[in-house]
Amino acid sequence: MQTLLDVHTHTIVSGHAFCTLNEMIAEAQKHELTLFGVTEHGPAIPGTCTDIYFRNLHVVPRQYGNMRLLLGAELNIIDYEGNVDITNPNTLDNR
Prior knowledge:
This protein is α/β, with parallel strands linked by helices.
């Protein structure tokens, strides 16, 4: 069975992986994934991405050869009202 997608990965930016985004993309292409997602942890996790990371996602290309890149966030619920640690969902570019 061939794996066609992986939509829950992290890069070194989140502090939960050892590779850069470019290294992760290259490895995904090497394994011929058609859909690849990076979901970094939201800013409430100590040592992870800050809001500036998420605000700059719009500059990252979404197509690499035959592979589509999805970029998102693993949000954290920060209180009993259900608020999350990324206050503006528009900081995540949903192209």
